Predict the structure.
Amino acid sequence: MSDANNLLALLQRPLEPTFLPKDDGKTVIDLPDDFLTDRYRPIGAELQSRFSNDAEQRIPVRQVTTPDLSFANGIDRRGSFSLFIPKHRDAAAALINLFIQQPDVATLMSVATYCRDRLNAVLFQYALAVAVQHREDTKNVNIPSIVSLFPDQFVDPAVFPKLREEGSVVQQENRMVIDIPPNYTASDREDEQRMAFFREDIGVNMHHWHWHLVYPGDGPDAVVRKDRRGELFYYMHSQLIARYNIDRFCAKLKKVRHLTNLREPIVEGYFPKMIRSSNNRSYPARAANIMLQDIDRIDNGTIVSVNDLERWRDRIHEAIDQGFVLDTAGNRIPLDEERGIDILGDVVEASSLTPNRQLYGSLHNMGHNVISYIHDPDYRYLEDYGVMGDVTTAMRDPIFYRWHGMIDGIFRRHKELLTPYNAQQLGNPGVTVSSVGVQLSRPNTPANVLLTFWQRSQVDLAAGLDFGPQGNVFASFTHLQHAPFSFRVEVNNDSGAVRKGTLRIWIAPKVDERGTALTFREQRLYFVEMDTSTVTLNPGMNTIVRRSDQSSVTIPYERTFRAIGTKSTPSNTDDLAQFRFCGCGWPQHMLVPKGSPEGVQFDLFAMVSDFEADSVVQDVDPNAPCNDSHSFCGLRDKKYPDRRSMGYPFDRRTEDTVRTLADFVTPNANMKTATVQVKFNNTVIART
């Protein structure tokens, strides 16, 4: 095993002392005596001999000058950690910097080992994961799935006593799988519970965590300053909202009402029924019809008023309407067609790249804080933040979609001011898309019908059960799934020569929750990207087939729920390439909207755009692992692989004469639509 992979031992069982065995007791980290904390140093020799006798592998840790960790003072080791709290973000940036600066892997291993038992567990895990991904000598180390490290942030806590009992009493070969009940946060008397399958999906919440891991908002400039980072912040979250709204229509629910009025009661309540394993305290609930209040938290120094949020929002609106933002020196930075959305993304979030935090504030992050502390704004009751205060849990709460709907509205305001795409920007002379459709992979199934159903899958949670049993402890959970299918597109190239093009496939709902047809102006906001790929067009007719599991938006189940541990890394070179860090991407099982038993109709849209206007000049290996979910996550260490604006061709308004999708498509031979139906079968099928 490489030295870099030794770092994985530090990520297991985050709250256990580092000297306890890892990898089911097979691996032990040999600590220098002064690396032990004050509690364990007096009995260090006894501990080392007691826990290391049966180890198959010993990881030596060399002595180093111990780092100054004062930047994390006040963040309790067993307390909560949030990327939305400025003090916590600053500590994370300092720790990432510390890890990035180490000259080699062995020194990083020593420094990280020293830090592990002295810092907040989530802070440590986050900073080490970011550093490992961004160092040249460790970037091929596989970051384990966060559900296996902190299952308390994804799973009904009622299963933990059962998991510990099964693991402690029953031998490995006889252990049963413990089932996690679906829809445990509310009854069906609550209409919003119809969307629990989406909001509380483990893969969806892990996607949100992993995206923020790949695109941290603070840290060394080389880590934060990625190509089109601000635009990706806009686009990924915008697609989340569009997907959520589509599934709301399928569930006969109205579109999300944006949280634009911060002075009215929040009608949605949310009772998460989750426990933080670090201190065994529950995530606080939010009752219905509570008002937002000014936050003044003496525990972590977070001070922000509702008026601050309104002022920052209004200043950003003013900047959009004027067409520029001001930097700290008073210079105008234009919000043009090319860079405007990227700059706005940095301003709204606000990442460390924002040109003027003093003027435009930190709208997105502080909004999360104001909502997450709504139950105890001044620390009167010593309560911690609710689920909106953590990127791993925020998407569980209905208010997440209302808040991000408002954020998306800000970006859309800018997009509405841009000039509509002209015929040259939309067209592709010589290329005609003659048909598009979908076909299930099973033989003898009707064309243009997709099927969804429930699937029961398993995940190993042993690595997150601190002070729990050795070996594997599996839990099963139920999630949406779709039958495998393919997109089939027929494209005619009458240019007489071989050409390249970019095939873009989208779907959008035809009607809202009442069955009322959507105008194109409305429908445009609900188009979701299904796949984008580069295609080679021979002269004449070409038939292009793209399997659903090849989507540029998604990652497969195995990557979402990857195994953990130094022993779980494959040794075969090809397998290792596929296993490398590939955790960022929308979960494959959520690619298709849920639909309904009677079937929901969607518009399927395909276009082949001009490759010359799409392509980005850079060296990219098309077979490189982890390049397959670039739509939301970009390419690692590369530029975003599509020169067009994210969301093209639906990200801008159209001329007033375009009232329907047909009006938009008909003038452009390189576009085609079809009607597809999504049928939901209310049965549960076990993953084979």
